[in-house]
Design goal:
Elements: H1 3-9, H2 15-19, E1 27-30, H3 33-36, E2 41-45, H4 57-69, E3 74-78, H5 83-95, E4 99-104, H6 115-122, E5 126-130, H7 132-136, H8 141-150, E6 157-159, H9 166-178, E7 185-190, H10 194-202, E8 208-213, H11 220-232, E9 239-241, H12 255-268, H13 277-289, E10 298-302
Parallel strand pairs: 2-10, 3-4, 3-6, 4-5, 7-8, 7-10, 8-9
Antiparallel strand pairs: 1-2
The chain binds pyridoxal-5'-phosphate.
């Protein structure tokens, strides 16, 4: 029996059948005078309700990769608080799939696991810590081969950091398709840009997508274009980025943003994830105040995550 035969014998259950995601995700209108005053309707696309463990864009990106892994161990990358690592670990537990998380920061190996990595480990993910310089070069072939060897995972199916490969981008196209005819502008927070790349491709002509990067650096236009080209052969849909709402960079915040998120949560009963969703909603309030959306515009904000306790 070849290793392929063995793999097929213990096929992973299909994620959509085994995990029963709530799709299409709910679309809810919220009444907020910071929008209504300017004649703008705000809708929340509640991707955070798709699945309790594969929250938001994690479902859309991971489901096609879980299928493609075809029972091989799944190896992926992330920082110490990565939502993507937690979702991958949970998927592994739910589907009986071996998972390996390559974590940025060799020094973390000697410290007690933080709550996020502890959750990954409790879900059965094997953690492999690497130094930051190697982590930066992880997409290069030789470095990756070395990492797989050191992690004893040479047979693994590899998913990049943030989960944004072509399968994931195509998976996110369904988010746009679910919003066809429902909004004029669809806004989403961006890390790697994979969700925006797919979302924009799924929208109908006349709709546009707006990305709010949470990382500093202004590199995402090229990145999203490259992701779309790899996934679809060319740039797709109408999309743009507004780089003004990263609050200093990834995981950076200010008392003002924190107060905004707390207030939004209590006004609308929405658990506001702080690393991405708070910056998106803050950006939309600001853009509306600036007159970026003509009266009569319907804006849908994609709620891509939920706070991690
Ligand atoms: C909650 C949340 N929202 C948005 C994003 C950004 O997604 P992307 O990396 O596809 O831009 C992430 C990162 O994966 C995330 O965890």
């Amino acid at each position: 029996m070849t290793s392929n035969d063995a793999r097929n014998e213990r096929e992973t259950p299909d994620p959509a059948t085994a995990l029963r995601p709530r799709l299409p995700s709910p679309l809810q209108e919220v009444v907020d005078d910071r929008f209504t005053r300017y004649g703008v309707r705000l809708l929340l696309k509640r991707d955070d309700l798709i699945h309790p463990d594969l929250v938001g864009n994690k479902w859309r990106k991971l489901a096609p990769n879980l299928r493609a892994a075809a029972a091989r161990p799944l190896l992926t990358f992330g920082g110490a608080y990565s939502n993507h690592l937690r979702a991958t670990a949970a998927a592994g537990r739910l589907l009986g799939l071996e998972t390996i998380g390559v974590v940025r920061g060799e020094e973390l190996a000697d410290r007690p696991l933080n709550p996020s990595l502890a959750r990954c480990s409790a879900d059965g993910m094997r953690l492999h810590f690497i130094d930051r310089s190697m982590y930066r070069h992880k997409a290069e072939r030789e470095t990756l081969t070395g990492i797989l060897r050191a992690a004893d995972a040479e047979e693994a199916y590899v998913v990049p950091e943030g989960g944004s490969n072509s399968l994931a981008v195509r998976g996110c196209r369904a988010l746009g398709e679910e919003l066809r005819g429902r909004a004029d502008v669809v806004a989403v927070a961006c890390g790697t840009g994979g969700t925006l790349a797919g979302l924009a491709a799924g929208l109908a002509p006349g709709q546009r997508a707006l990305g709010i990067p949470v990382l500093k650096g202004g590199f995402l236009t090229a990145e999203v274009t490259a992701l779309q080209t790899r996934a679809f052969g060319a740039r797709r849909g109408t999309w743009s980025l507004d780089d003004r709402f990263h609050f200093g960079g990834y995981a950076r915040t200010t008392p003002e943003l924190e107060a905004f998120a707390t207030d939004f949560a209590s006004r609308h009963g929405l658990p506001v994830e702080r690393l991405y969703v708070a910056k998106l909603l803050y950006g939309l309030v600001t853009l509306t105040r600036e007159g970026a959306f003509p009266r009569g515009t319907t804006v849908a904000a994609v709620i891509t995550g939920r706070p991690f306790p």
